[in-house]
Design goal:
The complex is a heterodimer. Helix content of chain A is 39%, strand content 26%. Chain A is of the alpha/beta class. In chain A, helix 6 packs across helix 17 and helix 15 packs across helix 17. The longest helix of chain A has 24 residues. Chain A is globular. Chain A starts with a strand and ends with a strand. By secondary structure, chain B is mostly helical. Chain B has a single domain, classed as Hypothetical protein af1432, CATH 1.10.3210.10. In chain B, helix 2 packs across helix 5 and helix 8 packs across helix 11. The N and C termini of chain B lie far apart (44 Å). Classes of the chains: A alpha/beta, B mainly alpha.
C-alpha cells in the first residue's frame, strides 16, 4: 500500500480490519522505504475505513512512523477516528505515544506548512495542559487564531456557538510534545506514579537519568503516587532509601502518597522515614497546602554537589539553542529579537526587579540546562496567547511559562535530532524571582546571551 | 477502453454450461437431491471437485466420503447448489491471474471463506433460503469477470491509478457504466436467480441501499463479511482489499453482532 500525497500530506487509507496478522500485508518493506523518501510535511494513516483494530494491527504503522521520523523528521500519526478509537489508541500506547493523533485530515492540515496564514479561528481543548499549549503555539505559528478552552465545560459551552469558529479541535494529540515520565504540578513538584508490586524491577523501570536531571534543574519535591501499590519488598526498599539519600545532597524531599502497609512490613515504613521519606495519606494534603508545598519544594538548593563546566560540544550547538528559544518567544510575543551581547561566564543579572525565570534540562547524547530570565511583562505577553487573556495571577503566569519553556525544549529536541543528537528533556522548573533562580544557578559557568525583544531585555543562559 | 459489449460477452460465458451441470443445477433448484446426484455423477470433474470439497478438514469427517448422493445429502439442497456454483466459478477462473495476485488455490479459499461465514450469518439471522445462501457466490464470480475485463488493459489501468489512485471499482464504473455489484446483478440474472438476490447484492455495495428493510440488513451483513474476508493477509496482498470502497457507516448498526459472531476480539 502506498500513501496518497495531497497538499504536502501523505495519507495511507487501510480498509476493514487491522490486526497483527494482516497489518504487515498492508505495508511491505518497499512501501515503508518509499514513504521515508517522500518529501512531505506529514505522513498520516487514516482510520476512517477501519472498522476494527488492535494494538498489533497498529504496530506495523507505528514502526513505519519511527522509520519515517528518524529519516526526515516528518510529523507522523493517525487521523480520521471517533472518540472510541481515539481512547483506544491512547490506551494502547499510554506510555509511548510518540506519534500524533488528529481527529480529521482537515484538523491535521491546520498544523502543516502548506496551510499557513489562513487566519482561521480555531477552538481547541485537551485534558492535558501541555497539549493545549503545544497546539495553540503550533496553530499560532502557522498563522491561525487559536482559542483555548481551559476546561471541558468551557469547551462544551463555547462549542455551542459553532459559527464563531472555523474549526473545533478535540481528541487531538501532538506526539512530539510533552513528557510522559512524570507529571508536573503547581509548586514545582514532580509526581511519579508507581503501582502493584514494587520489587527489584523498579531499578529498571524508574528513569534515574530523568530524576537526576530533574534534581540538576532544580526540582526539589518528588511525590510518589502510591495509591495502587499493593506491596513492596526489600529490594524496592533499598532502592527508595538510596534514592532518598542521593536526593539529600540536593536538599530534595521525597514523599509517598496513599501507600498502605497492609501487605508491606511496617518496619519498612520506619526505614524509609529514617532515610528522609515522608508519608501522606492524600495527594491534596500536600498539593492544597501552600505552606507545606513551599516548605518542601522551595528549600534552599544551593547545596549542589557537582558543579560542572560547560564543554565544547554544548557550545557548538549554541545556535540551535538560541534558535529554538528565540523562534518560540518571537512568535509568542509577536516581536523581533535582537542579540546584544554574548559571553562565557557565571550568570550575571544586573537588574533583578520584576523578573521571573524558568529552566529546563536536557540529557542524552549531550546534557545541560537552559535558563531563561524574562521581564514579567514579556512573560505575561508571551503567556497571554496560552491563557487566552491578560492576567496578573503570578502562579498562573509561572505555570504557563513552564508550558512555554517546555515547548522551547521540544523544539530544541527536534533541532538536535536533525543532527543525530538524541536528547531527552526534563520538565521545566519556574522561579518567581531572580533570587530563587540564583540558588540553583549561582556560580555555574555557562554561555550568557542577552537579547532584546523590542525594548525588553531577556536573558538566555546555557550551562551544565 | 472497456465496452458494455465486452462485459456482456464475458457474462455470457457464465456458466460455461455443460449440459450435465445445467441439469444438476436445475434439479437442485427443485429440491430433487437424488436425481441431481445421479446427473452430477456423469461429470467426472464435478465429481472430483465435490469429493475434494467435502473431505476438507473444515467439514470434519473421519472417513473419506466419495459417493455423490451421500455428498449432496451432507451438504443439503442449498449447500449442494452453492458447491455447484463454486465449481462453475472454478471452471471460469483464470489459470494465471494478472491484475489480482491470486491463484486457483487462493481463489478457492476466497470462495470457501465467504461461503462458510455467510452460512454462519444466515443461521444467526435465522434465514433459510437456498437462493440467499447461494447469493454469496456472485461476489467471487464478478471478481473473475473484472479480472477478465482488466487483464488486457493492465498497463493502462496502472497508469491511470498512478495519476489518481481511485479504486478499481470506480475505474470499472467510469469506464463502462457498471461496477462490481452491477456485474453481480447481471450474473444473478444469467443464473436465473430470483430478483431479490440482485437487490441483496446491490445493497451489499453499501452505496445502493434497498428500501426493503430485510434486504438492506442482508446487504449490510454481506458488505461487512466481504471486508472481513478481504482483510485477510492473502487477499490484501492479492490487492482485493482496495478493489471496492468500504462504507463503514453502513455497517455500524450490525458491527457488534458481527464481531461476536465471528469471535473478533
Amino acid at each position: 500500500m502506498r500513501a496518497l500525497v495531497k497538499n504536502g500530506v501523505g495519507i495511507f487509507s487501510p480498509q476493514g480490519f487491522l490486526d497483527g496478522n494482516n497489518s504487515v500485508s498492508f505495508l511491505s518493506i518497499e512501501d515503508i522505504e518509499a514513504t521515508a523518501k517522500l518529501n512531505v510535511d506529514m505522513i498520516l494513516v487514516s482510520l476512517k475505513k477501519v472498522v476494527f483494530f488492535n494494538r498489533n494491527g497498529l504496530d506495523a504503522f507505528v514502526k513505519m512512523f519511527a522509520k519515517v521520523r528518524s529519516s526526515n523528521h516528518t510529523t507522523v500519526g493517525f487521523c480520521d477516528y471517533d472518540t472510541k478509537k481515539f481512547n483506544a489508541i491512547r490506551k494502547f500506547y499510554k506510555n509511548d505515544l510518540n506519534f500524533s493523533l488528529f481527529s480529521s485530515q482537515e484538523i491535521a492540515m491546520l498544523f502543516t506548512s502548506s496551510y499557513k496564514n489562513q487566519n482561521k479561528n480555531v477552538l481547541l481543548f485537551s485534558e492535558d495542559k501541555s497539549q493545549r499549549a503545544a497546539m495553540a503555539i503550533e496553530l499560532h505559528d502557522n498563522g491561525h487564531n487559536p482559542i483555548i478552552a481551559q476546561t471541558e465545560d468551557e469547551f462544551l459551552e463555547k462549542s455551542k456557538s459553532e459559527a464563531a469558529y472555523d474549526y473545533i479541535i478535540k481528541n487531538t494529540y501532538l506526539g512530539q510534545m510533552g513528557q510522559s515520565i512524570a507529571t508536573r504540578v503547581t509548586g514545582n513538584a514532580i509526581i511519579y506514579t508507581v503501582s502493584s508490586f514494587l520489587d527489584a524491577e523498579i531499578g529498571n523501570t524508574f528513569n534515574i537519568a530523568y530524576h537526576n536531571n530533574s534534581l540538576n534543574v532544580g526540582f526539589r519535591l518528588f511525590i510518589f503516587d502510591a495509591y495502587k501499590v499493593i506491596s513492596m519488598n526489600v529490594h524496592a526498599l533499598n532502592f527508595f532509601s538510596k534514592l532518598a539519600s542521593s536526593g539529600a545532597e540536593y536538599n530534595a524531599t521525597i514523599c509517598f502518597v496513599g501507600m498502605t502497609f497492609e501487605k508491606t512490613p511496617k518496619a519498612f515504613k520506619e526505614t524509609l522515614e529514617d532515610s528522609g521519606i515522608l508519608f501522606y495519606n492524600q495527594m491534596d494534603d500536600i498539593l492544597q497546602n501552600k505552606e507545606l508545598l513551599e516548605e518542601l519544594g522551595a528549600s534552599s538548593a544551593a547545596n549542589i554537589k557537582n558543579k560542572r563546566v560547560i564543554n565544547k560540544t554544548t557550545v557548538t550547538e549554541l545556535p540551535n539553542f538560541i534558535e529554538a528559544t528565540v523562534a518560540t518567544i518571537e512568535m509568542m510575543t509577536n516581536s523581533k529579537a535582537t542579540k546584544e551581547a554574548a559571553n562565557i561566564n557565571t550568570i550575571a543579572i544586573t537588574d533583578k526587579t520584576n523578573k521571573i525565570a524558568s529552566s529546563i534540562g536536557f540529557y542524552g547524547d549531550m546534557d545541560g540546562m537552559v535558563i531563561l530570565v524574562f521581564p514579567a511583562e514579556i512573560a505575561k505577553k508571551a503567556c497571554a496567547l496560552l491563557i487566552g487573556e491578560d492576567t496578573e495571577d503570578i502562579e498562573l503566569i509561572l505555570d504557563t511559562l513552564a508550558e512555554l519553556v517546555n515547548i522551547v525544549g521540544g523544539k530544541l529536541k527536534t533541532l538536535l535530532s536533525d543532527q543525530n543528537i538524541s536528547v531527552d528533556i526534563t520538565l521545566p522548573r519556574t522561579y518567581p524571582n531572580v533570587d530563587s533562580l540564583l540558588e540553583i544557578a549561582n556560580g555555574k559557568k555557562g554561555v550568557q546571551v542577552d537579547l532584546a525583544f523590542d525594548n525588553d531585555k531577556f536573558l538566555f543562559f546555557l550551562t551544565r | 477502453m472497456i465496452t458494455k459489449e465486452q462485459i456482456d460477452s464475458y457474462i455470457e460465458k457464465i456458466p460455461p454450461a455443460p449440459k450435465a451441470l445445467q441439469e444438476t443445477l436445475h434439479l437442485l433448484n427443485t429440491g430433487e437431491l437424488t436425481k441431481a446426484a445421479k446427473v452430477a455423477s456423469q461429470d467426472l470433474a464435478l465429481n472430483n471437485y465435490l469429493k475434494n470439497l467435502v473431505n476438507k478438514p473444515i467439514y470434519g469427517f473421519r472417513n473419506s466420503v466419495s459417493d455423490i448422493s451421500q455428498i449432496f445429502g451432507i451438504l443439503g439442497v442449498s449447500g449442494s447448489q452453492q458447491a455447484v456454483y463454486n465449481y462453475m466459478m472454478n471452471l471460469l477462473s483464470p489459470k494465471d491471474w494478472k491484475l489480482f495476485k491470486l491463484n486457483q488455490n487462493s481463489f478457492h479459499n476466497l470462495q470457501d471463506e465467504l461461503s462458510t461465514n455467510w452460512k454462519k450469518i444466515l443461521k444467526f439471522l435465522e434465514i433459510q433460503d437456498k437462493d440467499i445462501e447461494s447469493s454469496i457466490t456472485l461476489l467471487p464470480a464478478s471478481i473473475i469477470v473484472s479480472e477478465a475485463l482488466f487483464r488486457e488493459k493492465i498497463a493502462d489501468i496502472n497508469l491511470l491509478r498512478s495519476v489518481n489512485p481511485i479504486d478499481l471499482n470506480t475505474v470499472l464504473q467510469r469506464l463502462c457504466g457498471m461496477d462490481l455489484f452491477d456485474i453481480c446483478e447481471q450474473i444473478s440474472l444469467k443464473w436465473e436467480m430470483p430478483k431479490y438476490i440482485a437487490q441483496i447484492v446491490q445493497a451489499s455495495s453499501g452505496l445502493k441501499p434497498s428500501q426493503d428493510k430485510e434486504i438492506n440488513t442482508l446487504g449490510r451483513w454481506m458488505h461487512l463479511l466481504l471486508f472481513f474476508t478481504l482483510s485477510k493477509p492473502n487477499f490484501i496482498e492479492a490487492e482485493l482489499n482496495d478493489f471496492i470502497d468500504f462504507q463503514i457507516e453502513y455497517v455500524a448498526e450490525i458491527y457488534d453482532d458481527f464481531s461476536s459472531l465471528m469471535e473478533i476480539s
